[in-house]
Design brief:
By secondary structure, the protein is α/β, with parallel strands linked by helices. It has a single domain, classed as Ribonuclease H-like superfamily/Ribonuclease H (Nucleotidyltransferase, domain 5, 2-Layer Sandwich). Strands 3-2-1-4-5 form a five-stranded mixed sheet, sandwiched between helices. The longest helix has 21 residues. It is globular. InterPro entries: RNaseH-like_sf (IPR012337), RNaseH_domain (IPR002156), RNaseH_sf (IPR036397). This is Ribonuclease HI family protein. One of its GO terms (molecular function) is nucleic acid binding. Pfam families: RVT_3 (PF13456).
């Protein structure tokens, strides 16, 4: 079973956002980064989760254990509902993408167990911010 770690970084709330995904299979370790545009913290986490699922699908992963330091995402996915309508489209998209897997679990972990994804998300945000400043 592949292990997937993801995290988002946001420069402000809302602000320019980026994310990183770490996918560990028995054979390989993959690192993906993505710029998400301007989002609030929670939306950036949802967008990072969606990106993580897309990455796993691209790698033809059938079984995944997805780790997140966002309690909101773990609770929402496992209950298949969100408290705020703002996040309903994110949840619906995530549940649709989950159908590509034979088995997928989402588990909350403390931030210190998601350090690598956080590191790469922060790095991606730094690079994204630096490039945006150069364009101005």
């Amino acid at each position: 079973m592949a292990k997937i770690y993801f995290d988002a970084a946001t420069g402000g709330n809302p602000g320019l956002s980026s994310c990183a995904v770490i996918i560990v299979t028995e054979e390989e370790r993959y690192i993906f980064e993505n710029d998400l545009g301007v989002l609030d913290n929670h939306s950036a986490e949802w967008a990072a989760f969606e990106f993580a699922l897309h990455c796993a699908i691209e790698l033809n992963i059938d079984n995944a254990l997805v780790f997140t330091d966002s309690k909101l995402i773990e609770d929402s996915v496992n209950r298949e509902q969100v408290k705020s309508d703002k996040f309903k489209p994110y949840l619906n998209k995530a549940l649709s993408l989950a159908n590509h897997f034979d088995l997928m679990f989402v588990k909350w972990v403390p931030r210190n167990q998601n350090k690598e994804a956080n590191h790469y998300a922060q790095q991606a945000l730094y690079n994204n911010t630096r490039q945006t400043k150069k364009r101005k």
